[in-house]
Design goal:
two-stranded parallel sheet
């Protein structure tokens, strides 16, 4: 498979201007230009299973998204999308991950009793398929394309959302009332 290519110069003045505007906005500098950010560019997205199974296909789609971001007239810096799914963290705590065709994976609850939560220990990254695959992808991306264009991985979810995947939800909600320290 041919190595996908960026259709833009990651060191261009337009991207440098976008970075300056975003940096000023994050630092809340008065009198600076307001950045225009609209990252919702169209691109064909992969299912989680497709992304996990084929790093080159994932890389090609991610480069396409970065190219689409670069072609828009806004201050969102072009980035290469990393793989991310909410089941990554529950998997690290021993939840079985279920893949349904065309849907995001979900995690089967590992615990039915909130008191068991203190015995949980995350597995090493090398033993968790999705987290290991994300690291494989980052390595693959950097070897194929270098590091001039940064990677971006969306958030995993908030701690409560992760807890609701690890602990059976009714048990979790009852514990919020009856044993909030758990």
């Amino acid at each position: 498979m041919a190595i996908p290519a960026f259709d833009f110069d990651p060191r261009s003045e337009r991207i440098a201007l976008a970075e300056r505007r975003l940096s000023a906005a994050y630092r809340r500098l008065p009198g600076e230009d307001v950045p225009v950010v609209e990252p919702n560019v169209g691109t064909f997205l992969l299912t989680t299973r497709e992304a996990l199974d084929d790093l080159d296909l994932m890389l090609g789609r991610a480069v396409g998204w970065a190219n689409a971001l670069a072609a828009t007239d806004n201050d969102w810096r072009p980035v290469v999308l990393g793989f991310c799914t909410v089941a990554m963290i529950p998997e690290a705590f021993g939840c079985e991950v279920v893949y349904l065709p065309g849907e995001s994976p979900w995690a089967k609850h590992a615990l039915d009793d909130i008191s068991q939560v203190w015995s949980l220990r995350p597995r090493p990254i090398g033993e968790t398929f999705m987290l290991r695959r994300e690291l494989d992808y980052i390595d693959h991306f950097q070897r194929r394309l270098g590091t001039a264009v940064p990677m971006w991985t969306p958030d995993i979810q908030c701690p409560f959302s992760v807890a609701a995947q690890i602990v059976e939800p009714n048990a979790l909600f009852m514990a919020c009332l009856t044993d909030p320290k758990a």
